[in-house]
Amino acid sequence: MGRWELERAWDLLEEGDLLEALEHAERAYRRHPKDPEARFLYGYLRFTSDGAYEGLRLMELGAKAMGGEACAELWRIYGTEFPAHLLDLARFLERRGLPLPGDTAWAEAVLEEQGLPPEVAREVERWLYQEDIPSLEGFFRKRPSPYPGYLLVRLYLARGAFLRAQGLAGELGEAWGGDWRVELARLLARFPQEGPSLAEEVRPLLARRPKDPHLAEGLALLALGVGEGRVALELDRAFDPPLRARFPHLEEPLEAEEEGRPLVPLGLFLSPGRADVSPPPFAWEAFRSWLPRLGLGELTLWGRPFLRSGLLSPEDVRQEMREGVMRLRFLEEGRPPFVPLASLGELLGASPEEREAASAAASPGELAHFRKAFPDSLLLELYALLYRPFGDWPEGRVRRLLREELPWGVREALRLRLELGRDPLAPLS
């Protein structure tokens, strides 16, 4: 039965039906988890369908047992964004006396730029791909060096954790001042507050053409931010596939640059979804340039600080979006019958750093990582409860929380959940 499932999965893959192929490949793998072909095909389909690193791991196990075309396909994937993995595969093939499917010069140049030993670079590459901030920061604290520090700054900035990124960039500057990767991290971390005024300080970096795509991405963002879009386009075209294919947030700013309408990437200076952060003086003009391109959902994601401050009005957007913007603005301003919107962190009086950590955490592990810096944070404790299944709730601690000065709605939600023995918003069935 397992063999039939595997052959059916190959047929469906050739027909282009990836989801159905994945179902059959998974059944084949579950029946024969050590079969190299089942590992390879299931891993390949897992990776191509949802980008899961576990799929890549299974694919590698299968390919190393199968050799030939399987290793060539794995080589192709590693050649796009996994240089340390590619060099590891090259060493495996050389030990087996097998020919290499391609050149390793690019991967060697990237690792030289990173300054990491090959065995370490592979782990860093995995954590970066998975956006595993706790593991990457744990490694950085044990074996500090500029490149992992730069990656952490970029990850924090991408999550909107600007204060944490600034703090880490300051540490990097004290330890490795003068290293260009550190200078890139420091300038990126300063951009949310200082914006295009950093142009003169950025200029010395613009002559660099990094081989590492993550360094190139950061430099391209910075170039776009200070009005040097020409440099960003050169960096984009220096990679195959181009940088914008690997980093989708670059696509619109680069397209706008090609059209002669420069845009400052939104993630450089705005925290997505947050209204409790005051934007810097340059932010409104930078944001206004985006208005013709944004839909209502994107406007809600990025525009809340400007709605709250009253800078963004219905007249600033396309006709078909004006009614939606008016309603959003009424919510932010608290026009009757609404009360002003406020984040839970604001209602609890949490510090900006606590509110940022709560917003940036994307998993229970990351939240636990951030809580180490704020062990007494009521906000982060409440967020931690949201991640826990109800059966794992510490009832005694929740009852003590109910005696805290909580906002009425939060207190009632906790009380209801305890009394009902279930999530009050969950379906009854």
UniProtKB/TrEMBL annotation:
Please report the name of this protein according to its UniProt entry. Answer: Tetratricopeptide repeat domain protein
Provide the organism lineage as a comma list: Bacteria, Thermotogati, Deinococcota, Deinococci, Thermales
What is the superkingdom listed in this entry's lineage? Bacteria
Q: Which organism is it from?
A: Thermus scotoductus
